[in-house]
Amino acid sequence: MNRIAHILSWVLSPILIPTYAVFAALWITPLAMLPADIRWNVVIVTALVTCVLPAFAIMLLYWMKIISDPGLNNRTERLAPYVLTILCYCACAWYLYSIHSPHWMWMFMVAGACTAVVSCIINTWWKISAHAAAMAGFTAMLFRIAADHIAIVPIWPYIAASIFLCGALCTSRMLLDRHTFWQVTAGSANGFLMVYLLTI
Asked: CA–CA separation, 1 vs 109, rounded Å?
């Protein structure tokens, strides 16, 4: 069971969720009409900015012994990675805005940055779940696509799968003793509400 929990925690890592979200947005909304090479370019740039760059920086901090765990399980060592994540989300939001992506798409990244700001502040005294926030934010984006009636495929199976994965991820974080029930609940509420409300 712990092995599955570890796999879920890595596959649904907060630094991977933005790439999954952009990929989904480009394939299940009218944006799917764009040429495939353009869509893949957007996915690759998103991955570089919100995944590769933060991952490299976190490993650099680990090698320099500024943080003791690349998984960032120590609450007191999360400030620098959070700040970097916020900057990366903002950079990706600017990129998506500059290529004239829909408002809700680049605002997803702004909402991600705002979620990270809230998490960073709360983290100064209490360990809130970034994993739960990111996955719930992805789920909120799917709900926004459904609410705005812009899906070109049946959206509810995707939403159901996302809710299931969010629940499985939160359960995994608790099984691994990384978070309590209330910490994953708070993280989920933070991510979902921020994305859903800011992408209106």
From this structure: 33
Record the pTM. 0.93
In the block, tokens 């996915």 appear at 43
Contacts of 109 (CB under 8 A, 6+ apart): 18, 50, 89, 90, 92, 93, 96
Residue-level pLDDT, tens digit, the chain, 200 residues: 789 999 999 999 999 999 999 999 999 999 999 999 999 999 999 999 999 999 998 888 888 887 877 766 666 667 778 889 999 999 999 999 999 999 999 999 999 999 999 999 999 889 999 999 999 999 999 999 999 999 999 999 999 999 999 999 999 999 999 999 999 999 999 999 999 999 98
Please name which of 115, 97, 98 lies closest in space to residue 106, comparing C-alpha atoms: 97
The residue with tokens 């779940």 is 129
DSSP state of 76: G
Q: Which residue has the tokens 């570089």?
A: 48
- Range list of H helices, the chain: 2-11, 17-28, 36-47, 53-63, 79-98, 103-122, 130-147, 156-175, 181-198
